[in-house]
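Hi U.,

Before I forget, here's the chain from the pilot set. I'm dumping it here mostly so it's searchable later in email.
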Amino acid sequence: MGFSMQPYGIQAMLKEGHKHLSGLEEAVLKNIDACKELSAITRTSLGPNGMNKMVINHLDKLFVTNDAATIVNELKVQRPAAKTLVLAGKAQQEEIGDGANLTISFAGELLQNAEELIRTGLHPSEIITGYTKAINKTVGILGELEEKGPESMDVRVKKQVITRMKAAVGSKQFGQEDVL
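Structure:
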């Protein structure tokens, strides 16, 4: 004779097959794992030699792309932290027009390092404090490395335009920045 218990509490409110994780550490680690998986999906398509991905969406439409924004738009992401990562990639793509892949990959690396720290016993708030100090230090160093130039540029002066375009061209077509 089988005896089955009816779910109670939060389990009764969840769909069948879903789990409720208890404990900060377990929930955080599950979210980090989801973000790492998302990062791994997009990381191989990063850079000029990045691989294309074949994505089939819910309408059975086939996409072949190495654009991280397109890839993550077509994924069905469920974990809250991974959804936040998708939103960060989308925001980067909308604001700058590029860099969604770098944003997702970099965040995945930061979270992988955070996972190691959590497993050694550090609390997530201590890790956040450390990352905040690191970003403040990085912004200070980048400010010192910035090359000062005139705030306005005359687009009719070829030398000024070439100087400003070299970095952008060099990041997409390495070695071709002197062709300008």
